[in-house]
Amino acid sequence: xxxxxHGMEQHExxxxxxxxxxxxxxxxxxxxxxxxxxxxxxxxxxxAARLNEAARLFAEEMLNPERDVTIGMTMAGALxxxxxxxxxxxxxxxxxVDFIISTGANLYHDMxxxxxxxxxxxxxxxxxxxxxxxxVIRIYDILFEDKVLLDTDAFxxxxxKSLPNHPxxxxxxxxxxxxxxxxxxxxxxxxxxxxxxxxxxxIYTSSPGDSSIGMNVxxxxxxxxxLTLDPxxxxxxxxxxxxxxxxxxxxxxxxxxxxxxYLQTQPQLWEVxxxxxxxxxxxxxxxxxxxxxxxxxxxxxxxxVSWGKIKPDQLRDTVVVYGDSTIALPLLTAYAVSKTQPxxxxxxxxxxxALLQELQNAYEIGKQSRP
Length: 371
Known about the structure:
With about 375 residues, this protein is of the alpha/beta class. About 45% of the residues lie in helices and about 10% in strands. It has one domain (about 70-370): Deoxyhypusine synthase (Deoxyhypusine Synthase). The chain has helices at about 15-20, 35-40, 45-60, 85-95, 105-115, 130-135, 145-160, 170-185, 190-200, 210-220, 230-245, 255-265, 265-270, 300-305, 325-340, 350-370, and strands at about 70-75, 100, 120, 135-140, 140-145, 205, 245-255, 280-285, 320. Helix 4 (about 85-95) runs parallel beside helix 9 and helix 4 (about 85-95) packs parallel to helix 15.
């Protein structure tokens, strides 16, 4: 493939090519600087520069109305207990995130905030045996009463009663949970699930058995319910969203199963369905995982190119920030909302049937042209 060489690569790079980047300067820090000013002026090298590149890629390219990018977000790691839901709600509100793939745990813990249950800042050096005796649960330096789990479980089971007695996609389950939170109206503005339901943002969980939400659905099955969660319906829905999009971009928080579940939509199109070989256009990942352990969480965008997950000529539109989502995501969010106008919300949840039909049609047409 030679058609994706640009400018500089036509000739052997010379000294001036290597030195064409912006000059690094020790800019002074001023009182009351905005977050955007801080990132633009201070974040000049190492992972600060990666965060600067990610922020600019997000604000200037991914959110550029002319690019028409459908933006996915993947969430792994305990982000909602740490209060990161506030960033994600902001991004959804501005139309900066169109659909979400999350671990079940993030959505389960998100409900505590909506149900007005308290999580507290604490110390990570406490004695866990003592905590267990006192009925206190610890997520590193976050502490909460064990009753929070039991009461959230009871809420989930109550919600399950009004769902159909057959398999559903996780987006339907999450929409239903969010709608029930809106109905009881405790503090829905603190909840990703509730706000996503209000704004029709679809939320998927790639491994739905792997959290307290799935555990309660499993209890339901012991009570004789035929309600199950269908991850294969999720594969088709997420693929339909990606297939329909003009361009696709993603913000990956951590890695894990949600990262792959998003990126596999492209191999699903070309390798399995035989529809097209595209690849995602924009890729931002915040991770603490390194590639040399061989795990998916640390795999680089260029490795993803070999799988047809990312377009080869878009590698310059990929950034990996090595760092902690609790530091990087608030900065990225603040930068985007400071620099960019809100976009109309796509409300993809309401369009699922049409998008699935579109995918079905493309698949049928492709089948006819194959031997």
